[in-house]
């Protein structure tokens, strides 16, 4: 099995395409099952956030699996596969591991160093595990990625500035209405639409910045009540949006809806009661919650994920990381590189396990055959004598095999170590069963561009 990551993010695709690919939590199991029904995929995890959609997969062939994943994403987006491919990035084997570690560390985030991605990655793995979609390879990868992310955040201070998507959007929005966050938020009335993870993060951020009134609106009022209780706000249902919009100075919308929650007609009805007070609307949802016409209403300023991405990374990914503490990004990259080397060594070492098991099995078979022959030639031996001879022979074989098998595991952990398992198989004529090979983890140690030969 090999690792493959296929995805797109705010850096490679426009928001309208990300909207089409976004996968609400309730639809993830179905997508995972469809992916696993494809011929070249044996494990899968799907990560879908406000600025990325990625498929992590254990695959038996690079090109076949790429076509499988591309076909599912194309069907979901309504795009032709060729058109979709222009916005996709592909990481294979060791580069797939590196990318996963960088995602977990927040190095690939819109706001570099934000910690929310750790929870999102954990949630994606949990959903996939409940759907029985990841196996040994993705389990090891995701668990290690989460540990790498925690290490980066605890050792580098990469998130010391306390920035996340919400605070970055507040900074951008406040400037557009002539203020400066967080001072602009003081004594303002804030409305958060949506009580999921992003809604809760928004509520926590606004509460910390001292808004005068905090309202959490959600389709399920019970869930809104839980978020409101945790952050000193009050809950309401979506049926009360017009009245709450009329009173609000700031709206943060972050639902998982596939339709517009804040339509132009709805917001227009509320602005009629606002007596000319400006309204800042932050649309942090993908797909977008706010209808395009809302931005055209007088006194209303809308900031969405697309604008936020452009403001945070105007260099297109070539400039310095916004908001990250000085020196933290190089330190984080070093941790990722160190952890990558360690993890790839573990994977290469794990790959030799079926060969070692086959060698020990061959030795046991030879011993069993010779002991049966001895019993036929020397029928006068007692049961106790036969048992002593068997123990001695087994002990000799185990001692002979111990050093070579320990050493081959050590050598296999080094770059290029997969050749040692091949030599063992050749020398002893070992036939490693397909099932055992499938259980092993194989990640290429160097090249990231696969050849057809490596896919076998």
UniProtKB/TrEMBL annotation:
It catalyses: (S)-4-amino-5-oxopentanoate + tRNA(Glu) + NADP(+) = L-glutamyl-tRNA(Glu) + NADPH + H(+). Residues 185-308 form the Quinate/shikimate 5-dehydrogenase/glutamyl-tRNA reductase domain. Its EC number is 1.2.1.70. Residues 6-156 form the Glutamyl-tRNA reductase N-terminal domain. The active site is at 50 (nucleophile). Homodimer. It comes from the Bacteria. Belongs to the glutamyl-tRNA reductase family. Residues 331-430 form the Tetrapyrrole biosynthesis glutamyl-tRNA reductase dimerisation domain. GO terms for molecular function: glutamyl-tRNA reductase activity; NADP binding. Keywords: NADP, Oxidoreductase, Porphyrin biosynthesis. HAMAP family: Glu_tRNA_reductase. Substrate binds at residues 49-52, 109, 114-116, 120. It is an enzyme of class 1 (oxidoreductase). InterPro entries: 4pyrrol_synth_GluRdtase (IPR000343), 4pyrrol_synth_GluRdtase_dimer (IPR015896), 4pyrrol_synth_GluRdtase_N (IPR015895), GluRdtase_dimer_dom_sf (IPR036453), GluRdtase_N_sf (IPR036343), NAD(P)-bd_dom_sf (IPR036291), Shikm_DH/Glu-tRNA_Rdtase (IPR006151). This is Glutamyl-tRNA reductase. The lineage of its organism: Bacteria, Bacillati, Actinomycetota, Actinomycetes, Micromonosporales. NADP(+) binds at residues 194-199. During catalysis, the active site Cys acts as a nucleophile attacking the alpha-carbonyl group of tRNA-bound glutamate with the formation of a thioester intermediate between enzyme and glutamate, and the concomitant release of tRNA(Glu). The thioester intermediate is finally reduced by direct hydride transfer from NADPH, to form the product GSA. Possesses an unusual extended V-shaped dimeric structure with each monomer consisting of three distinct domains arranged along a curved 'spinal' alpha-helix. The N-terminal catalytic domain specifically recognizes the glutamate moiety of the substrate. The second domain is the NADPH-binding domain, and the third C-terminal domain is responsible for dimerization. Pathway: Porphyrin-containing compound metabolism; protoporphyrin-IX biosynthesis; 5-aminolevulinate from L-glutamyl-tRNA(Glu): step 1/2. SUPFAM superfamilies: Glutamyl tRNA-reductase catalytic, N-terminal domain (SSF69742), Glutamyl tRNA-reductase dimerization domain (SSF69075), NAD(P)-binding Rossmann-fold domains (SSF51735). Catalyzes the NADPH-dependent reduction of glutamyl-tRNA(Glu) to glutamate 1-semialdehyde (GSA). The record marks 99 as: Important for activity. GO terms for biological process: protoporphyrinogen IX biosynthetic process from glutamate. It comes from Actinocatenispora rupis.
């Amino acid at each position: 099995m090999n690792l493959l990551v296929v995805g797109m993010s705010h850096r490679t695709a426009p928001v309208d395409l990300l909207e089409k690919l976004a996968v609400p939590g309730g639809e993830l199991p179905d997508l995972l099952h469809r992916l696993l029904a494809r011929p070249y995929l044996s494990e899968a995890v799907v990560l879908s956030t406000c600025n990325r959609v990625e498929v992590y997969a254990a695959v038996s062939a690079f090109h076949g699996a790429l076509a499988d994943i591309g076909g599912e994403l194309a069907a979901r987006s309504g795009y032709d596969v060729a058109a979709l491919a222009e916005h996709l990035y592909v990481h294979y084997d060791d580069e797939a591991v590196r990318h996963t570690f960088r995602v977990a560390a927040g190095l690939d985030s819109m706001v570099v160093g934000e910690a929310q991605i750790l929870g999102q990655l954990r949630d994606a793995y949990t959903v996939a595990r409940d759907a029985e979609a990841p196996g040994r390879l993705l389990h090891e990868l995701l668990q290690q990625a989460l540990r790498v992310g925690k290490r980066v955040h605890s050792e580098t201070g990469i998130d010391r500035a306390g920035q996340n998507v919400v605070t970055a959007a507040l900074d951008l929005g406040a400037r557009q209405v002539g203020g400066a966050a967080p001072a602009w938020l003081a004594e303002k009335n804030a409305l958060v639409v949506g009580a999921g993870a992003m809604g809760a993060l928004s509520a926590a951020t606004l509460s910390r910045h001292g808004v005068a009134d905090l309202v959490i609106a959600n389709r399920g009022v019970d869930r809104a009540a839980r978020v409101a209780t945790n952050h000193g706000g009050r809950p309401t249902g979506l049926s009360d949006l017009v009245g709450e919009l009329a009173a609000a100075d700031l709206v943060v919308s972050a639902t998982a809806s596939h339709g517009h929650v804040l339509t132009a007609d709805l917001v227009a009805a509320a602005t009629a009661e606002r007596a000319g007070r400006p309204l800042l609307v932050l649309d942090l949802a993908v797909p977008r919650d706010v209808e395009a016409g809302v931005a055209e209403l007088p006194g209303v300023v809308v900031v969405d994920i697309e604008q936020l991405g452009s403001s945070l990374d105007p260099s297109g990914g070539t400039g310095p990381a916004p908001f990250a503490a000085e020196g933290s990004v190089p330190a984080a990259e070093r941790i990722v590189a160190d952890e990558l080397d360690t993890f790839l060594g573990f994977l290469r070492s794990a790959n030799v396990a079926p060969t070692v098991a086959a060698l020990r099995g061959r030795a046991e078979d030879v011993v069993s055959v010779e002991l049966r022959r001895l019993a036929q030639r020397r029928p006068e031996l007692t049961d106790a004598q036969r048992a002593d001879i068997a123990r001695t022979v087994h002990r000799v074989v185990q001692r002979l095999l111990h050093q070579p098998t320990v050493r081959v595991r050590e050598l296999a952990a080094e770059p290029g170590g997969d050749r040692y398992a091949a030599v063992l198989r050749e020398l002893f004529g070992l036939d490693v069963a397909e099932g055992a090979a499938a259980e092993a983890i194989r990640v290429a140690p160097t090249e990231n561009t696969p050849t057809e030969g490596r896919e076998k």
